[in-house]
Design a protein that fits this description.
five-stranded antiparallel sheet, binds 2-acetamido-2-deoxy-beta-D-glucopyranose, 31 strands, mainly beta, globular, 433 residues, four-stranded antiparallel sheet, 8% helix, Methylamine Dehydrogenase, Chain H
Length: 433
Amino acid sequence: MKQRHASVLACILCCCALAHGALTARRSLLGSGKNKNKTDTSATYVYAWAGPKNASLGGKDSIFVISLADGEYGKIVSVVPTPYSTLEPHHCRISSTRKYMGCSGLFAAFSGIPGALFFELSDPRTPKLVDPAKVDQPKHSAFADEFVATEDGGFLLTMMGTPTGGSPGRVAHYDKDLKLIGEYPDPVKFPQVEGLNPHGLGVSWVHKTMLTVDFFEPASSMAGRTLKLRSTVRLWNISDWTISETIDASMIKNVSGPMDAVAIAETGAYFFGGGNGYVYYLDGKGPKPHVPVVAWDGLDGNPNRTSFGCIMHPFRNGTRLLAAMFVRDQVQLLDTTNPQKLKLLDTLQLPKGAGGHAVRVSRDEKMGAVATYYLEQGARGQLHHEGDLTIRLFGLNDRATKFILRQPAKSLIDFKTVAKKQGPFRPHGIAIY
Ligand SMILES: *[C@@H]1O[C@H](CO)[C@@H](O)[C@H](O)[C@H]1NC(C)=O
Ligand SMILES: *[C@@H]1O[C@H](CO)[C@@H](O)[C@H](O)[C@H]1NC(C)=O
Ligand SMILES: *[C@@H]1O[C@H](CO)[C@@H](O)[C@H](O)[C@H]1NC(C)=O
Ligand SMILES: *[C@@H]1O[C@H](CO)[C@@H](O)[C@H](O)[C@H]1NC(C)=O
Ligand SMILES: *[C@@H]1O[C@H](CO)[C@@H](O)[C@H](O)[C@H]1NC(C)=O
Ligand SMILES: *[C@@H]1O[C@H](CO)[C@@H](O)[C@H](O)[C@H]1NC(C)=O
């Protein structure tokens, strides 16, 4: 057993080293070229998962395909609609085999439509919706949120609540053929799990642990209810998909409504956003109890800790992190070499009121995109954070220490005007092919 772990680790290290060498060589070849406008990336398309602001104008929840190719950089080259317009398009993730993209519909349960949707990517320019009638939907949980790609080509997906928006939610598991193989923890063995409303999740496959963070109980966000914000984070044992430890983080600088969690490479440690502008570090290794520590203040000492959420993207080797701070209209590029004490390398400053929410980088970590819409529930609910309804593309320099904007005008895709007759769209999920 130990030996197998060691060889898996050796392979990961070795592959990283090879990939890193190849990447450096390619960068030095392309980096000195004359065409400074060309982003040195192998990424080809950015997928934006967006829904119509006013569905009565005929728009559908759709994937907007933004090209990164020369000559059409920043252009929407196809739009793939679903039959729905009340999903509340949320997060997206491409599978490790690049065969499928999973996209969630946070409020699908309110309309009795499927919340776990998948697109087939054999033609990456025109993803094809997999017939939702042929995909099993979780039965014990709903309010689909964030995906993580599993090593075998499937997905894990956080489900924030029960089918009626109560507690507990679960983590759903799809295999590489999109078969639903579990909802965790097993509802038969664990029918009640107090306050389990998972939003973000990170996994360490080597250490066999997972971190999920509880955000809020979905139905409690509706108008006239008291918002049940959670402050618990959960460490899991993924050998049997059970929760091994529930950590109440409310005492650590008032964690409330932690939204996102990510793994720090394969170190067995994680970052999560506390819902209060702080980014926390939690090492999941070793015996209980595990105690989170503050690793970064995304609000730069501001006494007003209102944050309106923070979505993060970790780089593969664990030395960089992007954190989108909605309330500051920023994406922060952080050096995480010391994961308990992060350092700010650069800031992508958006205009006041823009927001800044889902953020992702390409597989080669040379470019990225940020969507500015978070959630606007209108008269039905309590969350009103619409941002400026844009997707912004950015580049990163060779050492990933700076943002680069090579074609600023083309790097801004305005979803207020992408569809003329159907009115503004709200882009939330992002994935980069
Ligand atoms: C590079 O960008 C500049 C400024 O955006 C533009 O004027 C120029 O035409 C671009 N050159 C190429 C080769 O795309
Ligand atoms: C939505 O569009 C319909 C049809 O044009 C219009 O009557 C209605 O006022 C719009 N609603 C909002 C909230 O803008
Ligand atoms: C995880 O679960 C497996 C299977 O039940 C068990 O053998 C193992 O000891 C557990 N690991 C930890 C760290 O508790
Ligand atoms: C902790 O955060 C919650 C929700 O944001 C807020 O209502 C409460 O006043 C805060 N408590 C302290 C001690 O700051
Ligand atoms: C704290 O910041 C939020 C977000 O900018 C703002 O809406 C709120 O009014 C501020 N609260 C105080 C007491 O200044
Ligand atoms: C980690 O990844 C970044 C971004 O790809 C790269 O610039 C950096 O050199 C890498 N660091 C190591 C130690 O491999």
